[in-house]
Structures
1.
Amino acid sequence: MLIRSIINLHISEKLLARIIAGSVVVAITSLIWDAWWHVAVGRDTFWEPPHLFLYFSVALACVLSIHGYLRTRKLLWRNLGIALAIIPLQLLLTNFGTACLE
């Protein structure tokens, strides 16, 4: 029921692309902020503000690209969703690798 109501949202593809692009910009900005945070504050936790902005913006971009694919069935949206899903997966693998080396 919830998925059907989300799919039936009438957002133009142009607006959808702009929101996704803005979300990616927020993600990149939050990565820069996180790097500064590590220098200024030191080691931090999972729930620090730069991390929360990063998690939310990447999740929003992934959900919206999936929405675009489910609504239009264009491969562009599916491929964008896959590419955006690689971001959190890569971060998990990088953090796991770093933890193994310590």
2.
Amino acid sequence: MVAVGACAPVKAEQPTQPGEVAAPQVILNGYRRYNSACNHCHGPDGVGSTFAPSLIEQPLPFARFEQIVRDGSVTGTSVMRGFGDDPNVSPYLRDIYAYLEARVTGAVGRGRPTPAP
């Protein structure tokens, strides 16, 4: 139900605003947050599973991603609960998005990203 929009390749020391690239530490934090809250349904590395779609195959703009993650979504019999009140997800949406965006663009591969020096 949720996917991420592709943007420019990842470069260090740039802010994580929608449409901009993220610093490697933000991507690493996004990876950690994704794995603590999202991978149970959306699969490892955002590739999808048997009951939740890939988050890297059909990108969404940040605003739509944020809305779905905060409020949840219902499509037919598929239901995703909202995470707007989850203190382990809601404050870190930009980090999660940055990680998934880096997966979409190929800036990071599968598995844990290597931390920046």
